[in-house]
């Protein structure tokens, strides 16, 4: 019997700890994976991959107390050596190696991808086929640190705004947006679906906590095979009560984006540099009506409006181009989407019920958010369902929530992988999805 | 066209903002849901439910500029009135109502549950059937704020320990622990499953970031119908590389629990008080071998050991009782579980391969965590699979990761709803699951 009393102190140092060591010439211990070995004859550079970056370790024949051949790429090792300053080395430090201890060895050191190159110049498919190896590349893994920063900023910002985090079920008997595009399965001899959105649940929880959010997977059985679509993705969702209008929701998202950029600058500067990212200006984001921007784009780019009630992908591109040229913004809110294009719970514009009090946020030509005000009145919901020929069956619990009172509210959902993609400058959403699921990919 | 420039300043005040108002007698605006109305004749108390708690508002005939009958329970309203101190009121403040504005009205004000009572004295089933209403009760919703605190502490603690957050897919072609207890579905004409754990993915990511975590749903098609089992739950998972032994994993969990208790004391004091929770002492947590504690329990409680390689639920109870009586701890790590009871990836004890370098954490008689060291050597993994008669097919990508080198590592998974349940003193895990999924429940 023993007692555990908390996190154990480690003998080995991380890069930030090495940088904090007072004075050079001290003997230190470090560990890591052998990222690459550059043999220069009497001297060799053994570069360790550590979670905080690369660490240059110097082997010198006659000084180091082991043979260079004892260590190879893809080993994980522990090194004892002397810490030195070297402005040419990553982070300006290196370790003069004295002794090593092999922690583990690869069965096959011929890597399927050249992960130690600065850029992995290979196809998306090759990267995905060797995903867990490809991500060992410093630039590849940096993208998902940026993704971490986004999720973290979303949560921390919303906690600060009085939101409560919730966990809603992904298995259900019924889904928010009707019967299309649902993955179906059998649940103990009953038909079930995977939720394509936490929509109904987060609305129900507004009656409990006023403001709620969730960061969780959603599932869409859409047969799209594009660079923008995934069949499983992480949705950053929030819903807020006591709004004066859907502008409150857009304002909250703007606040989140501002918080995000500050957090990235502060805590993810290393990754921004690795990926050579210039953060967008989000001090003010233009919002423009759907019908108005269609008209503006049509005029400016001499383009005929084919369908006044729909946006084509090319139009989304042009709207973003317009916003950049006219208002200097990479982001643009497009508001008042046509009612036909929005789900039953969307609040129609009382001034023109062909449109809704809703919005999309476009970022460099890509829709990354859909949101808006929701119907909070029980009878209005029943009427909307009836007008659409939808059944109340399966929505009983949702509707009962409104029967017993709900404040005016609205919310949004952000596609995490899409936002990451645009932020890091990729053009395929698979590049910013750890293990993407699409029409042809269910593994790894 | 307009510009959004960030979160909008609200005119209405939250409870913490009211408490910060300098001096009483000021006119303020607040909003909220009418939780209950107590009519005392010339005076009535209109109690608002707000996200930070209850707020007492006082209606006085002749002073308030509206009729009491204009407001009813389950309305959401905005109030203008005068802020006063009253030590008998919740938080020591109340609002003398001057005028109101109705924001929304219920279609039916007869609530299915008496949510304004202090305790909802009704069955678990009734609570779940009216879940979104039941949670409007102040004690019910407090449980899920504690749950938020747990997830938040888990993430914040691990960020501080150099972990990276990941999002792994829930749809897959193959799962970690073999073929049993999986939900199956069709994925574009291919057979697919829902992951019962992020195990294989988080291990693969150790080769990338050294330390990773995920907080996400997992799915288990187990036909258990008990107070401890769910078919979908939130798993708090982490995996860490460069460990000296599985004790490092237990030490990290102990550190998390210590961080959690401090966070709850600091940021969730209100909820701890509402639920009358005394936090457990986690300054030191005993760890004892599986075979040893079975023997000790057998001797102390005069109980015959039926199966030396398995733990019965009653034994888990008695182990916790033993840990409390002998070591004064609500928590106890049980280590070195029999190899037969652990999945293929568990590292066997080199000193006795009938046992593994693994552990469970029991909290007041309930297993809330399973963890341990994993095999990191490619050949050892192949041998283990062969010894179990398992196929490599479907594990190719996982195995390739090890082929190209992996550090010694280990990790764990914590059941969020179970930890919440024990912390808030419930005896059914459905009480601490927002919308539980079990053998009979797929809705709401």
TrEMBL record, chains A, B:
Gene3D superfamilies: Bira Bifunctional Protein, Domain 2 (3.30.930.10), Nucleic acid-binding proteins (2.40.50.140). Residues 144-444 form the Aminoacyl-transfer RNA synthetases class-II family profile domain. Keywords: Aminoacyl-tRNA synthetase, ATP-binding, Cytoplasm, Ligase, Nucleotide-binding, Protein biosynthesis. Aspartyl-tRNA synthetase with relaxed tRNA specificity since it is able to aspartylate not only its cognate tRNA(Asp) but also tRNA(Asn). Reaction proceeds in two steps: L-aspartate is first activated by ATP to form Asp-AMP and then transferred to the acceptor end of tRNA(Asp/Asn). Homodimer. Belongs to the class-II aminoacyl-tRNA synthetase family. Type 2 subfamily. This is Aspartate--tRNA(Asp/Asn) ligase. It comes from Dorea acetigenes. The gene is aspS.
